[in-house]
Specification:
Order of helices and strands: EHEHEHEHHHEHEHEEEEHEH
CATH topology of the largest domain: Rossmann fold
Strand order of the largest sheet: 1-11-8-7-5-6
Number of helices: 10
CATH architecture of the largest domain: 3-Layer(aba) Sandwich
Distance between the termini: 47 Å
CATH class of the largest domain: Alpha Beta
Shape: globular
Radius of gyration: 19 Å
Protein backbone atom coordinates (compact mmCIF):
# COMPACT_ATOMS: atom_id res chain seq x y z
CA UNK A 1 0.00 0.00 0.00
CA UNK A 2 1.40 3.37 -1.05
CA UNK A 3 1.91 6.34 1.23
CA UNK A 4 -0.68 9.02 0.45
CA UNK A 5 0.99 12.38 -0.08
CA UNK A 6 -1.92 14.51 1.11
CA UNK A 7 -1.91 18.20 0.35
CA UNK A 8 -3.51 19.44 3.57
CA UNK A 9 -0.40 19.04 5.79
CA UNK A 10 1.68 20.83 3.13
CA UNK A 11 -0.78 23.71 2.89
CA UNK A 12 -1.06 23.96 6.68
CA UNK A 13 2.72 24.15 7.14
CA UNK A 14 3.01 26.79 4.40
CA UNK A 15 0.19 28.83 5.91
CA UNK A 16 1.88 28.88 9.32
CA UNK A 17 5.20 29.99 7.81
CA UNK A 18 3.52 32.70 5.73
CA UNK A 19 1.53 34.02 8.68
CA UNK A 20 4.82 34.70 10.47
CA UNK A 21 6.26 36.50 7.44
CA UNK A 22 3.07 38.53 7.06
CA UNK A 23 3.23 39.67 10.70
CA UNK A 24 6.80 40.82 10.14
CA UNK A 25 5.69 42.84 7.10
CA UNK A 26 2.80 44.40 9.00
CA UNK A 27 5.22 45.42 11.75
CA UNK A 28 6.93 47.46 9.04
CA UNK A 29 3.66 49.02 7.93
CA UNK A 30 3.15 46.77 4.88
CA UNK A 31 -0.02 44.71 4.45
CA UNK A 32 0.42 42.12 1.68
CA UNK A 33 -2.49 42.62 -0.70
CA UNK A 34 -3.86 40.50 -3.53
CA UNK A 35 -6.04 41.84 -6.33
CA UNK A 36 -8.42 39.31 -7.90
CA UNK A 37 -9.66 40.14 -11.39
CA UNK A 38 -12.68 38.10 -12.41
CA UNK A 39 -14.77 38.51 -15.56
CA UNK A 40 -18.20 36.92 -15.24
CA UNK A 41 -19.47 34.28 -12.82
CA UNK A 42 -17.91 30.98 -13.88
CA UNK A 43 -18.49 28.38 -11.19
CA UNK A 44 -14.89 27.13 -11.20
CA UNK A 45 -13.58 30.70 -10.89
CA UNK A 46 -15.91 31.35 -7.96
CA UNK A 47 -14.87 28.13 -6.24
CA UNK A 48 -11.17 28.96 -6.55
CA UNK A 49 -11.83 32.53 -5.46
CA UNK A 50 -13.49 31.32 -2.26
CA UNK A 51 -10.53 29.04 -1.53
CA UNK A 52 -8.00 31.79 -2.27
CA UNK A 53 -9.79 34.30 -0.05
CA UNK A 54 -9.99 31.80 2.80
CA UNK A 55 -6.27 31.04 2.52
CA UNK A 56 -5.35 34.73 2.34
CA UNK A 57 -7.43 35.43 5.44
CA UNK A 58 -5.59 32.66 7.32
CA UNK A 59 -2.23 34.13 6.31
CA UNK A 60 -3.20 37.77 6.94
CA UNK A 61 -3.25 38.89 3.31
CA UNK A 62 -5.78 41.53 2.28
CA UNK A 63 -7.85 40.81 -0.83
CA UNK A 64 -9.37 43.34 -3.22
CA UNK A 65 -11.80 42.02 -5.84
CA UNK A 66 -12.21 43.60 -9.27
CA UNK A 67 -15.28 41.97 -10.80
CA UNK A 68 -16.32 42.80 -14.36
CA UNK A 69 -19.39 41.66 -16.24
CA UNK A 70 -19.00 38.96 -18.87
CA UNK A 71 -19.92 41.55 -21.47
CA UNK A 72 -17.26 44.07 -20.44
CA UNK A 73 -15.12 45.70 -23.11
CA UNK A 74 -11.42 45.18 -23.67
CA UNK A 75 -10.88 48.79 -22.63
CA UNK A 76 -12.61 48.26 -19.31
CA UNK A 77 -10.47 45.21 -18.59
CA UNK A 78 -7.23 46.95 -19.54
CA UNK A 79 -8.15 50.01 -17.45
CA UNK A 80 -8.66 47.72 -14.46
CA UNK A 81 -5.27 46.09 -14.96
CA UNK A 82 -3.57 49.46 -15.40
CA UNK A 83 -5.11 50.69 -12.13
CA UNK A 84 -3.79 47.60 -10.34
CA UNK A 85 -0.32 48.14 -11.83
CA UNK A 86 -0.30 51.73 -10.62
CA UNK A 87 -1.50 50.97 -7.08
CA UNK A 88 1.54 50.58 -4.81
CA UNK A 89 -0.71 49.07 -2.14
CA UNK A 90 -1.43 46.03 -4.32
CA UNK A 91 1.42 43.53 -4.39
CA UNK A 92 -0.02 40.65 -6.40
CA UNK A 93 -2.72 40.12 -9.01
CA UNK A 94 -4.61 36.94 -9.90
CA UNK A 95 -6.58 37.21 -13.15
CA UNK A 96 -8.93 34.32 -13.80
CA UNK A 97 -8.54 32.66 -17.16
CA UNK A 98 -9.77 31.74 -19.69
CA UNK A 99 -11.41 35.07 -20.37
CA UNK A 100 -14.60 35.28 -22.46
CA UNK A 101 -13.97 34.82 -26.18
CA UNK A 102 -14.90 38.46 -26.82
CA UNK A 103 -11.75 39.61 -24.98
CA UNK A 104 -8.11 39.47 -26.09
CA UNK A 105 -6.55 37.37 -23.35
CA UNK A 106 -3.00 37.74 -24.66
CA UNK A 107 -3.28 41.54 -24.57
CA UNK A 108 -4.72 41.45 -21.04
CA UNK A 109 -1.89 39.24 -19.80
CA UNK A 110 0.71 41.43 -21.53
CA UNK A 111 -0.72 44.50 -19.78
CA UNK A 112 -0.13 43.09 -16.28
CA UNK A 113 3.08 44.10 -14.50
CA UNK A 114 5.14 40.87 -14.16
CA UNK A 115 6.21 41.98 -10.67
CA UNK A 116 2.56 41.62 -9.59
CA UNK A 117 1.87 38.49 -11.63
CA UNK A 118 1.50 35.81 -8.93
CA UNK A 119 0.27 32.96 -11.19
CA UNK A 120 2.48 33.21 -14.29
CA UNK A 121 0.04 34.92 -16.65
CA UNK A 122 2.71 37.08 -18.30
CA UNK A 123 5.58 36.38 -20.67
CA UNK A 124 7.88 37.98 -18.09
CA UNK A 125 6.97 35.38 -15.47
CA UNK A 126 7.49 32.56 -17.97
CA UNK A 127 10.88 34.03 -18.82
CA UNK A 128 11.70 34.00 -15.10
CA UNK A 129 10.85 30.30 -14.86
CA UNK A 130 12.77 29.28 -17.96
CA UNK A 131 15.79 31.53 -17.36
CA UNK A 132 15.97 30.93 -13.61
CA UNK A 133 15.58 34.66 -12.92
CA UNK A 134 13.56 36.36 -10.18
CA UNK A 135 10.96 37.84 -12.53
CA UNK A 136 7.31 37.33 -11.65
CA UNK A 137 6.34 33.94 -10.24
CA UNK A 138 5.84 30.36 -11.51
CA UNK A 139 2.36 28.89 -11.99
CA UNK A 140 0.91 28.03 -8.58
CA UNK A 141 0.04 24.44 -9.53
CA UNK A 142 3.52 23.75 -10.90
CA UNK A 143 5.16 25.08 -7.75
CA UNK A 144 2.70 23.09 -5.62
CA UNK A 145 4.31 19.92 -7.03
CA UNK A 146 7.71 21.05 -5.76
CA UNK A 147 6.25 22.03 -2.37
CA UNK A 148 4.73 18.55 -1.93
CA UNK A 149 8.00 16.80 -2.77
CA UNK A 150 9.93 19.09 -0.41
CA UNK A 151 7.45 18.69 2.44
CA UNK A 152 7.63 14.91 2.31
CA UNK A 153 11.41 14.90 2.13
CA UNK A 154 12.15 13.73 -1.42
CA UNK A 155 15.58 14.73 -2.69
CA UNK A 156 15.36 16.01 -6.25
CA UNK A 157 19.11 16.27 -6.91
CA UNK A 158 19.99 13.49 -9.33
CA UNK A 159 16.48 12.03 -9.36
CA UNK A 160 15.05 10.69 -12.62
CA UNK A 161 11.73 12.47 -13.20
CA UNK A 162 9.25 11.87 -15.99
CA UNK A 163 6.72 14.66 -16.63
CA UNK A 164 3.67 13.84 -18.73
CA UNK A 165 2.23 17.04 -20.17
CA UNK A 166 3.64 19.98 -22.09
CA UNK A 167 1.36 22.90 -21.21
CA UNK A 168 2.67 26.28 -20.10
CA UNK A 169 0.55 25.93 -16.97
CA UNK A 170 2.16 22.78 -15.55
CA UNK A 171 4.21 20.50 -17.80
CA UNK A 172 6.82 22.87 -19.20
CA UNK A 173 7.31 25.08 -16.11
CA UNK A 174 7.46 22.19 -13.64
CA UNK A 175 10.07 20.53 -15.85
CA UNK A 176 12.24 23.64 -15.68
CA UNK A 177 11.73 23.96 -11.91
CA UNK A 178 12.74 20.34 -11.42
CA UNK A 179 15.86 20.83 -13.54
CA UNK A 180 16.72 23.90 -11.47
CA UNK A 181 16.78 21.52 -8.48
CA UNK A 182 19.20 19.24 -10.37
CA UNK A 183 16.70 16.55 -11.32
CA UNK A 184 17.11 14.77 -14.66
CA UNK A 185 13.83 15.33 -16.48
CA UNK A 186 12.19 13.46 -19.34
CA UNK A 187 9.23 15.30 -20.86
CA UNK A 188 6.49 13.15 -22.37
CA UNK A 189 2.93 13.56 -23.62
CA UNK A 190 0.02 11.45 -24.78
CA UNK A 191 1.68 10.86 -28.17
CA UNK A 192 5.00 9.68 -26.77
CA UNK A 193 5.99 6.29 -28.18
CA UNK A 194 5.89 3.64 -25.47
CA UNK A 195 4.83 6.10 -22.80
CA UNK A 196 4.56 3.31 -20.24
CA UNK A 197 8.26 2.45 -20.61
CA UNK A 198 9.26 6.10 -20.17
CA UNK A 199 7.17 6.23 -16.99
CA UNK A 200 8.64 3.05 -15.50
CA UNK A 201 12.18 4.44 -15.78
CA UNK A 202 11.38 7.35 -13.48
CA UNK A 203 11.96 7.69 -9.76
CA UNK A 204 9.30 10.41 -9.68
CA UNK A 205 6.37 10.63 -12.08
CA UNK A 206 4.45 13.91 -12.57
CA UNK A 207 1.23 13.33 -14.50
CA UNK A 208 -0.42 16.44 -15.96
CA UNK A 209 -1.90 15.29 -19.26
CA UNK A 210 -5.49 16.25 -18.55
CA UNK A 211 -6.91 12.85 -19.49
CA UNK A 212 -8.43 10.14 -17.30
CA UNK A 213 -6.45 6.91 -17.42
CA UNK A 214 -3.20 8.33 -18.82
CA UNK A 215 -1.22 6.19 -16.36
CA UNK A 216 -2.21 2.67 -15.30
CA UNK A 217 -0.52 -0.31 -13.70
CA UNK A 218 1.56 -1.03 -16.80
CA UNK A 219 3.31 2.36 -16.50
CA UNK A 220 4.57 2.09 -12.91
CA UNK A 221 6.86 0.00 -10.75
CA UNK A 222 7.72 -0.46 -7.10
CA UNK A 223 9.55 2.38 -5.37
CA UNK A 224 8.16 5.22 -7.46
CA UNK A 225 6.60 8.49 -6.30
CA UNK A 226 3.59 9.59 -8.37
CA UNK A 227 2.20 13.13 -8.42
CA UNK A 228 -1.22 13.19 -10.08
CA UNK A 229 -1.94 16.77 -11.13
CA UNK A 230 -5.01 15.98 -13.23
CA UNK A 231 -8.50 17.00 -12.16
CA UNK A 232 -11.23 15.34 -14.22
CA UNK A 233 -14.89 14.50 -13.74
CA UNK A 234 -15.61 10.79 -14.18
CA UNK A 235 -19.22 10.51 -15.39
CA UNK A 236 -19.30 6.76 -14.88
CA UNK A 237 -18.12 6.97 -11.27
CA UNK A 238 -19.81 10.28 -10.58
CA UNK A 239 -16.77 11.80 -8.91
CA UNK A 240 -13.56 13.76 -9.40
CA UNK A 241 -10.49 11.79 -10.41
CA UNK A 242 -6.99 12.40 -11.66
CA UNK A 243 -5.07 11.33 -14.75
CA UNK A 244 -3.79 8.24 -12.93
CA UNK A 245 -5.88 5.09 -12.48
CA UNK A 246 -5.52 5.26 -8.71
CA UNK A 247 -6.89 1.81 -7.87
CA UNK A 248 -4.38 0.19 -10.25
CA UNK A 249 -1.35 2.32 -9.42
CA UNK A 250 -1.62 2.82 -5.65
CA UNK A 251 -0.92 -0.85 -4.73
CA UNK A 252 2.29 -0.82 -6.81
CA UNK A 253 4.11 2.45 -6.13
CA UNK A 254 5.78 3.76 -2.98
CA UNK A 255 3.82 7.03 -2.71
CA UNK A 256 1.06 8.86 -4.58
CA UNK A 257 -0.99 12.06 -4.32
CA UNK A 258 -4.76 11.55 -4.08
CA UNK A 259 -7.32 13.38 -6.23
CA UNK A 260 -8.97 15.30 -4.74
CA UNK A 261 -6.91 16.19 -1.69
CA UNK A 262 -3.45 16.26 -3.24
CA UNK A 263 -1.71 18.85 -5.41
CA UNK A 264 -4.82 21.00 -5.82
CA UNK A 265 -5.06 21.51 -2.07
CA UNK A 266 -1.67 23.23 -2.05
CA UNK A 267 -2.23 25.73 -4.87
CA UNK A 268 -3.92 28.48 -2.84
CA UNK A 269 -1.13 28.27 -0.25
CA UNK A 270 1.41 28.77 -3.04
CA UNK A 271 -0.64 31.73 -4.30
CA UNK A 272 -0.43 33.26 -0.83
CA UNK A 273 3.30 32.55 -0.76
CA UNK A 274 3.74 34.51 -3.98
CA UNK A 275 1.78 37.49 -2.66
CA UNK A 276 3.88 37.60 0.51
CA UNK A 277 7.09 37.31 -1.53
CA UNK A 278 5.93 40.13 -3.82
CA UNK A 279 5.29 42.34 -0.79
CA UNK A 280 8.74 41.49 0.59
CA UNK A 281 10.35 42.42 -2.74
CA UNK A 282 8.69 45.81 -2.58
Amino acid sequence: MATLLKGLPVAKALTEQLATRTRELKDKGITPTLAIVRVGERSDDLAYERGACKRCEAVGIAVRKFVLSEGCTQGELLSTIEAINADAGIHGCLMFRPLPASLDEDAACAALDPAKDVDCATAGSLYGVFAGRRVGFPPCTAEACIEVLDHYGYNLAGAEVTVIGRSLVIGKPVSMMLQARNATVTMCHTRTRDLAAACRRADILVVAAGHIGTVGADAVREGQVVLDVGINWDDAAGKLCGDVLFDEVEPVVDAITPVPGGIGTVTTAVLAKHVVAAAERC
